[in-house]
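quick one before i forget lol
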Amino acid sequence: MVKYTKSNLQKLELLFKEQEYTIRYEKGNFQSGYCVVQARKIAVINKFFDTEARINCLLDILSTIIVMDNAMSISSRSLYKAILKSEEYQAHVA
C-alpha cells in the first residue's frame, strides 16, 4: 500500500493539512514518538524519526482522528481510501 517514501510522506502531510491539522517535527519526550493536541489540531512528531517512522506515526494518528471526506482533494481521497484498505493501516487500528 503506502511505500515509505518522502513523496508519500508529503501526500500524508497534505491530507492532514486538508483536515486542518498542523504537523510539527520537534524534539521532545514522546512515549509513542508523537503527541496530538486535539483541541488545537496539532500533531507533534519526533524530528529525529526517519521517513518510515514518520509515516507510521501519521498512520497511527490518522486512525484516531475524524476524517472529513468533503474537505479532501481527489488525490488525498484516493490515498485515504488506499490507506483504509491496506493491511498496515488495519494493524494500526487493531
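fyi The chain has one domain: 6-93.
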